Inverse folding.
C-alpha cells in the first residue's frame, strides 16, 4: 500500500475510533492524565438515584449516573472528576429515600473501588 494511502487509512480508523469511543476515552483520563475511573459499589441497602462530585466547599457537578439508578448491591465504573484537577473530592449520593450522603476527601486518583455505605 502506498504511504499516502496507508496514512489516509490510519486517519480514517483513528477518526472512526474517536467517533465511536472518543467520549469514553476522554472521560477515562482527565486533562492532567490522572486516572479517575472508579468502580462505585452501592452498599447502602437503598438505590442511589444521583451521584456527583465537587472539590471541598465547591459546587457539585452533573449527575454521574445520568438518570440510571445504582441499585443496592450493584456497582458501576464511573469517572469521578470535578474538572479542576483535584484528586481529593467530596462525593455526594442522593438515595431513593431522599437521604443525601456526602463523603469528603475521597482520593479519586488513587482508588479503583469505592464502597458507599450509610
Amino acid at each position: 500500500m502506498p504511504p499516502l494511502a496507508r496514512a489516509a487509512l490510519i486517519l480514517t480508523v483513528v477518526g472512526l475510533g474517536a467517533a465511536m469511543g472518543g467520549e469514553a476515552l476522554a472521560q477515562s483520563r482527565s486533562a492532567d492524565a490522572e486516572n479517575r475511573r472508579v468502580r462505585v459499589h452501592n452498599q447502602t441497602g437503598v438505590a442511589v438515584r444521583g451521584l456527583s462530585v465537587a472539590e471541598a466547599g465547591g459546587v457539585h457537578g452533573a449527575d454521574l449516573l445520568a438518570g440510571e439508578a445504582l441499585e443496592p448491591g450493584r456497582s458501576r465504573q464511573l469517572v469521578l472528576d470535578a474538572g479542576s484537577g483535584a484528586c481529593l473530592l467530596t462525593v455526594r449520593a442522593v438515595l431513593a429515600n431522599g437521604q443525601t450522603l456526602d463523603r469528603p476527601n475521597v482520593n479519586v486518583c488513587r482508588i479503583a473501588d469505592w464502597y458507599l455505605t450509610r
In short: The chain has a mean pLDDT of 82. Strands lie at 37-42, 48-54, 75-79, 88-95, 100-107, 113-116.
